[in-house]
Amino acid sequence: MDLIVSFFRGIVSITVGWLVTVKSVPSNIEKELGIDKTKPILYLLQTESFTDQLALRRSTQSLGLPSPFDDIIIAGSERKRMYFLTRPQGLFSRRVKKTSIEDVFTEYFAIHREHLDIDLQIIPVFISWGRASGKKKSGLAQLLATKASPNWLRKFFIVLFLGRDNFVSYSPAVSSRQMSELHGSDKQIAQKLVRVARTHFQRKRQTLSGPTLLERQTLYNSILGGELVKQAIDDEVKQKGIGYDKSREHAIKYIDEITADYRVGLIRLGERLLTRIWNKIYDGIDVKHAERVRELAKNGHEIIYVPCHRSHMDYLLLTYVIYHEGLVTPHIAAGINLNFWPVGGLFRRCGAFFLRRSFAGNKLYTAVFREYLELLFNKGYSVKYFPEGGRSRTGRLLPPKTGMLAMTLQAITKGVSRPVSIVPVYLGYEHVMEVKSYMKELKGKSKKKESPTQVFSAIRKLKNYGHGFVNFGEPILLTQFLDDAVGDWREQKTPDEKKPRWLTPVVNKLADKVMTRINRAAALNGSAMVALCLLSSKTHIMSKKELVQSIDDYLQLFKAVTYSNDATLPDEPAQQLVERSLALNRFEQSQDDYGEMVSPKDNNAVLLTFYRNNILHMFALPSLVMTAVFSHKTIAKQDLIELVKQLFPLLKREFFMHQSTEEAIEYVEKLVEYMDSVGLLKVDNDHITQPEATHVRFHSAWLLSRSMQETWQRYAIVLRVLEKEQNIGRAQLEKQSQTIAERLSALYGMHSPEFYDKNVLSSFVLALKENKHVSSQENGSLSFSQNSSTLKDVIDPLVWPEIIQHLEQI
Length: 810
Known about the structure:
The longest helix has 25 residues, at 608-632. The chain is 53% helix and 13% strand. Helix 4 (101-114) crosses helix 8. The chain is globular and about 95 Å long. The protein folds into four domains: 13-209, no CATH class; 260-520, Glycerol-3-phosphate (1)-acyltransferase; 526-706, no CATH class; 709-809, Arc Repressor Mutant, subunit A (Orthogonal Bundle). By secondary structure, it is of the alpha/beta class.
């Protein structure tokens, strides 16, 4: 009989091997879960299923864990390593039978009292096939629907159709020693363990699959029944003189235009398709800090992902990563411009809901959208939207659009049953497919409307794009944020749906917090660092040896003086990093008698600015230090600190930097100490000077002093216009500054379209006003003041003399 069972299991093992692809979550159980592979391990599963056991064995092999089929020695006796809460349903019965697990662990806890050296790691393992979220189904869909303990026939079809959608999800280990020391008899402790395990597996299922999907009619009824929507329908009837039914039809039309039509099967198909695409165009996707999101999901949080937006790939990449991290994929806010055939319907079925660029003047549309967003939150769906509103054409973060954040906070104030957390996400790429079109748009060419032709053209151009980077930033718990920002917000609820007075300043504060946390989680990468070095070089060409040296110096700098705990650095050495970046075929390589040289391909340095800007905020303070040293030749340490005090608030506003001024000063002091220790600069009796020109790190220091030059020049331009005009309207100031910046760009070859970008200039003018560097008049105009003059005197020495001379002539 044992031979027959072994033969049958062997056949099943081979078949499962063909059908099943196992994904282990998390992939690093030691770091994230604190599991010690050197200590005894037991596995606790929900259902006694042989295919689950085979999936677990494949997962443990890949993670270096002991096989679940191997026995373990406990108190001198061989015992099983795997245990189960339940047995599968019978073929003709829905009844789920319990196992003898309570008796087994009662015995174990008794053994612990006799053998004080025993401490077992009990690891709960949830094994999922498919990600069905519980919508009413029929036929094959019903057969494959998620069940806690399916019978063997149902499991056969589940493995057959969903074998490549298998997740083996591990949880932190429970110490058997600590359990045995709890109050109560061994039997009671065992019962508590089983009870907690059942609840845990239930939550795991919810984390993977998400809440039950709404039927279409239920969706209509829920949105149309909202008080805000009913009021908006009544208002439209009165204002436009149309019938109630006609106004209600408008509301239904808006529901159809906005709402997603989420299909799990399409998500599964999309995952397989995207896996092929990623393998073709990326040589790796680096994901960091995903454990933060899993922790939120485990604790029942409603999760709102707010990533930066640099490419249309963002929609797909982040959803793909979330899926592979064992989390339910979010509903995604997408611009209405993406709702075109054939991709609009596909996006909608993958969870996209569409919004117009402007809600202005359409109260009914606004009410329907808000009600839908609140419905998603209340039903427990995770949501993703881009706070910048659109893709960044410059590579730097755009000033946030606050509409979605405002509606999110308003939903919280109305009451959401679960805690809601915002998760900022940094997305980075070594190559972005749209970068050439971005540069054309920044130079004045009109943006092309999205169309099927564009989609198919983009697909044809897919090629090696290097690495993708997804870093999950520190979450923001919204109720805690509101408690800190508006202590009595719960008492200030407005029953008439009017916007509370505190909302606008609090939303602005939240938006700034989101953007700073995105940049705080930046990913330093080879492509961006090569771009920064070449653009800082006077001729945009460097020897390969100098390039490797500079990048190595910068990597060592950020390892020694960490920008933030959330920022990530590449693991490869500088030489390998440069080689991999050059392999992307965006740089020209040439050779002379003295070695290899690197320059932008086709002399198109302007394209590199996009990648440099992804990380420029990390270099802002190191570059400020070097610029001050090189421009002044010698500067007292105290004068450098004063310079940081004056300029950092402006940098913080423009680059969404996370430090306070005090933290920035402390950071600069650490930079100076480190730079002195490695020869990037010299400190003598509290005076700082540049390194000798013969020093091996002189070139790295010189490049660093030039990397922020365009920023200082832009500041000098605005202040020069202010000084010349003395009193000027904000719009006129920005316009004149833009004109001069365009002229300087043409004269001195500034290869950066954002040098004269109106949004960047506007951000600086606003920072001047916020930090009281200009006087604001009653008519809204800005005046040159003593503070303006002081700031100008600080900035002018940082700017190249030829630029200052030209500004004086203008």
